[in-house]
Specification:
By secondary structure, the chain is an all-alpha fold. It contains 5 helices and no strands. It starts with a helix and ends in a 9-residue tail after the last helix.
Length: 128
C-alpha cells in the first residue's frame, strides 16, 4: 500500500540523515587531526604549508590578471560595449578621428570600433 511505502521512504531518509551526520563528524575529526599528523603546531601554519606546496595556484577569477600570450604580451579582457560606448564612437567618427584613435581613447580594440561603426552604418561600402 502507498502508506507503507511512504513510511519506508521516511525511514530510509532518517537513516540517510543519520549516516550523513556520522560521516561529517568523522570527517571533521580526521581533518582536525591532519596538522598534528604532519608535525604542525596549528591549523594556520598547516594551511600556509599546503598553499605553498600547491604553488599558490588558484582558479582564475575576476580579480586575476590577464593571461599572457606566447610572445609575452598581456591578453586583453573582452570589452563591455555599452550604449555610451556606441555614442562615443559615433561622436568621435563624426569629429573625424581614425579608428585607431577611437580605440585608444575608449580603451577598446580596433575590431570593436570597426564592429560598432558597421552596426551604426558609419562605414562606406568598398568599391569593386
Amino acid at each position: 500500500m502507498v502508506t507503507d511505502k511512504i513510511k519506508e521512504l521516511e525511514a530510509a531518509k532518517a537513516k540517510m540523515a543519520a549516516l550523513e551526520k556520522s560521516i561529517y563528524a568523522q570527517l571533521s575529526t580526521e581533518l582536525a587531526a591532519l596538522p598534528g599528523k604532519y608535525g604542525f603546531a596549528d591549523v594556520q601554519s598547516f594551511i600556509v604549508a599546503v598553499k605553498a606546496a600547491a604553488g599558490g595556484r588558484r582558479k582564475k577569477g575576476p580579480g586575476r590578471p590577464a593571461k599572457k600570450t606566447a610572445g609575452g604580451a598581456k591578453r586583453r579582457r573582452r570589452a563591455i560595449i555599452t550604449e555610451e560606448t556606441r555614442a562615443s564612437v559615433k561622436k568621435l567618427v563624426e569629429a573625424g578621428k581614425t579608428g585607431a584613435d577611437i580605440a585608444k581613447a575608449l580603451k577598446i580594440s580596433l575590431p570593436s570600433v570597426q564592429n560598432i561603426k558597421k552596426a551604426l552604418g558609419l562605414v562606406r561600402a568598398r568599391k569593386k
